[in-house]
């Protein structure tokens, strides 16, 4: 039996069930942060850059950081102890593990990672309330959903993912 992955509507319902009062803004489909910015730059907060990666031993990693963070994969792999460095993982693995497609990578995909196969790497600014809201795609790249740092912690407690915190600022 194939895994059933939660989609946008199910995710938003789950966030509501968790008491997370989020803001969701619909916009045209975007595949890069640069394409998304004109549609979300009026919102108060920070839009996330999300990278789905694997290391040499095929361990899976999801990085969530401010869109303007300067991410150097070699440095990041040393920070988190990823053997052999980090590289982008295939879209087939992204869909299998998180129910996502390229362009729609999001921290919210962890809701589909029931076996905790993906290790979350989170920029420290996403947990210290640097920004009033953090914006991620809600499983699709045609919308952005904003939550507070506290609400993000509530979501991660629900999924059971304990992030590796890095400072990319």
From TrEMBL:
GO terms for molecular function: aminoacyl-tRNA deacylase activity. Residues 27-155 form the YbaK/aminoacyl-tRNA synthetase-associated domain. SUPFAM superfamilies: YbaK/ProRS associated domain. InterPro entries: ProX/PRXD1, YbaK/aa-tRNA-synt-asso_dom_sf, YbaK/aa-tRNA-synth-assoc-dom. It comes from the Eukaryota. Belongs to the PRORSD1 family. This is PrdX deacylase domain-containing protein 1. It comes from Lottia gigantea (Giant owl limpet).
């Amino acid at each position: 039996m194939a895994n059933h992955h939660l989609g946008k509507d199910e995710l938003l319902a789950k966030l509501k069930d968790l008491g997370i009062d989020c803001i969701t803004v619909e916009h045209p489909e975007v595949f890069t942060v640069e394409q998304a910015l004109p549609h979300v730059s009026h919102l108060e907060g920070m839009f996330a850059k999300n990278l789905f990666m694997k290391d040499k031993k095929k361990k899976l990693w999801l990085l969530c950081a401010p869109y303007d963070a300067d991410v150097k994969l070699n440095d990041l792999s040393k920070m988190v102890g990823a053997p052999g460095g980090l590289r982008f993982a295939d879209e087939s693995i992204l869909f299998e593990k998180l129910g996502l497609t390229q362009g729609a990578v999001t921290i919210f995909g962890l809701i589909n990672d029931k076996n905790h196969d993906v290790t979350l790497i989170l920029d420290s600014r996403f947990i210290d309330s640097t920004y009033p809201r953090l914006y991620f795609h809600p499983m699709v790249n045609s919308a952005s959903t904003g939550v507070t740092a506290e609400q993000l912690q509530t979501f991660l407690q629900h999924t059971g993912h304990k992030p590796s915190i890095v400072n990319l600022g």
